[in-house]
Amino acid sequence: MRYTGPYIGRFAPSPTGPLHAGSLVAALASWLDARAHGGRWLLRIEDVDLPRCAPGNDEIILGQLARCGLLPDEPPVWQSRRGDLYAQALQRLVDAGLAYGCACSRKDIAALAPPTRHGELVYPGTCRAGTGGRPARAWRLRTAGAGCIEWQDRRLGRQRQDLEREVGDFVLKRADGLWAYQLAVVVDDAEQGISDIVRGEDLADNTPRQVFLQRLLGLPTPRYLHTPLVLGANGEKLSKQNGAAALALEDPVAALRAAAAVLGLRLSAGDLPGLLAEGVAAWRAMMPAIEDPQSKESP
């Protein structure tokens, strides 16, 4: 089902630390795309993995975005307060026979299916027919018969992934009781009416799982655009996990200009309002046009 409503974009940082240079690129790209299409821009704090989210980081992120002039059109929402929505979605999948309890530990899975995909474990479907009396540790989505999930990225072009072979039955609710990112993000995007997801290229690999979940839950599939990554000195993606420094915002114009350069935009305005206005015009000129976000064509 294709999304046919008005343009609504979002930025969804995880508060495991303050924003860094890479996360500002994603924030700016999503904001520019929303403004270039006359749409709304929302902010969602993805704190579903509570043990990794230090108290106060969410407020730091909100302050960093405000200092850069990137203000959401609605009050932010927090994933940690939306568990009832995720529980309802999981129950729908369980009732339809599309999700099941899994008793396997990572050690169990590794013994049967060594890591083959970006170092991750491809689940071999051990508990599809039942746990053999063992208590369920997590809940997984059945991918048998999913085939190749194909989707169109506005920057990367046509993409495809054999979900069962390359990913396996993936987790919807973790063994520690926390909600998995894949389920939470799909439910949240649909509930907020998100039409366009603009995020870093490292998350493109998640898209087939999310598209599959959208189809099973009868939810519309947004348009996707995955942006270039900021790389660290070691050539890997700049991230909080590899020690990325918190964003220095003594000069927000300079920080935004650097982020825009990663996106292929050369901006010259010296003040914040002027730079953002220049960025919207440059983004509109650079990015291929998408269908009219007000279109009501049938999916």
Automatic annotation (TrEMBL):
A motif ('HIGH' region) lies at residues 13-23. Residues 10-245 form the Glutamyl/glutaminyl-tRNA synthetase class Ib catalytic domain. A motif ('KMSKS' region) lies at residues 237-241. Zn(2+) binds at C102, C104, Y123, C127. Keywords: Aminoacyl-tRNA synthetase, ATP-binding, Ligase, Metal-binding, Nucleotide-binding, Protein biosynthesis, Zinc. L-glutamate binds at R10, F11, A12, P13, S14, E46, Y181, R199. Belongs to the class-I aminoacyl-tRNA synthetase family. GluQ subfamily. Catalyzes the tRNA-independent activation of glutamate in presence of ATP and the subsequent transfer of glutamate onto a tRNA(Asp). Glutamate is transferred on the 2-amino-5-(4,5-dihydroxy-2-cyclopenten-1-yl) moiety of the queuosine in the wobble position of the QUC anticodon. This is Glutamyl-Q tRNA(Asp) synthetase. It comes from Roseateles violae.
